[in-house]
Amino acid sequence: MTQEQEEIKDMLGTVGEDPGYVWMSGERVAWDDANVHVSMLGWSAISMVFEGIRGYWNAEEEQLNIFHLEQHLERLLRSMKVMRMTSPWSIEELKRAVIDLIQANEFRDDIYVQPLAYFGGSTTPGYLPVQEQDGDITIFNRQIGSVLGSGRTVNCGVSSWTRISDNVMPPRVKAIANYQNSRYVADESSRHGYDFGIILNPQGKVAEISYACLYIVRDGKAITPPVSAGILESITRDVVGQLFENELGVPVVEREVDRTELYIADEIFICGTGAEIQAVDSVDGYRIGSGGVGPAVTALEQLFHDIVRGKDARYSEWRTGVY
Ligand code: PMP
């Protein structure tokens, strides 16, 4: 196992070995043969966009439920559009590709699926005019653990780095290059002993976490920065908003959030596909509420867990069964 895999294991519990196959632009290819030419490093890499999708194994039903597959693929195509990258494959074809690949890899566990789109056909230098072109797409997947219901909490620090903004490097686009901003934040926060860094936008308002979105709970309301605050248009953030409003009777407010509101919040949690839902125990050393997992996050996490895994039959349209 690589050091990176060891670190992910610390965060997520388990990370599986390399699977048998990846999907490369229409072909199923053995993991060890899935190569691209070295000239793809560089200009091609700077315009790559990607997605992160989870699948949850339901042991009783022997079903692997992919969470919001279509929405993730739609976001991938939107990210590609901003890069002036067209997709030779429809959403339906990509959905089929994801399902076929999971079946070929015979996963019967929780998994993470990563589609990646890039200009594979040419090494046109970036200083030439940008032409709209078809992208190549690869899809790989791997077994990965879930922390839902584990009681795990995270300690966060507000980062000294500023979030990229729409007129610099649009955070709404899930571009590989954007993650250098997240990486600076993660590097700083881990060196300072935090699990995650919270990033403020150029206006000094709370944007998001390096790899996830954030909600605070104050006076019975769930508050989250708006999509124009320099965040990824997170699918989990949307789902959480719907569950709070429709199932838990917690009103959701999208508005700017100040740094000091973090310190005095009753509860804070981070949410995202990879991060799932995790309560924040402290920010900058300030204990949040009474620490641990508060009542709103406890209820939300349980509901979210049951829905993504298909133990709660509601919201079946959010799940795509593989088997
Ligand atoms: N913000 C960033 C920077 C992320 O990387 C992620 C994870 N994809 C999120 C937010 C959460 O987005 P989603 O809920 O769609 O996974």
Number of strands: 19
Compounds present? 4'-deoxy-4'-aminopyridoxal-5'-phosphate
Helix content: 25-40%
The arrangement of helices and strands along the chain is: HEEHEEEHEHEEEEHEEEEHEHEEEHE
- Helix segment count? 8
Summarize the main sheet: 9 strands, mixed
Span from first to last CA?
Answer: 29 Å
Indicate how many domains the architecture comprises. 2
Estimated structural class = alpha+beta
CATH-derived topology of the largest domain: D-amino Acid Aminotransferase, Chain A, domain 2
CATH class of the largest domain: Alpha Beta
Mind sketching the topology for me?
Layout: H1 3-12, E1 21-24, E2 27-30, H2 43-46, E3 49-50, E4 53-58, E5 63-67, H3 69-82, E6 85-86, H4 91-104, E7 111-118, E8 133-134, E9 136-143, E10 153-162, H5 179-191, E11 196-200, E12 206-209, E13 213-218, E14 221-224, H6 235-247, E15 252-254, H7 259-264, E16 267-272, E17 276-283, E18 286-287, H8 295-308, E19 319-321
Parallel strand pairs: 6-8, 10-11, 10-17, 14-15
Antiparallel strand pairs: 1-2, 1-9, 3-7, 4-5, 4-7, 5-19, 7-9, 11-12, 13-14, 13-16, 16-17, 17-18
Helix pairs in contact: 3-4
Bound molecules: 4'-deoxy-4'-aminopyridoxal-5'-phosphate.
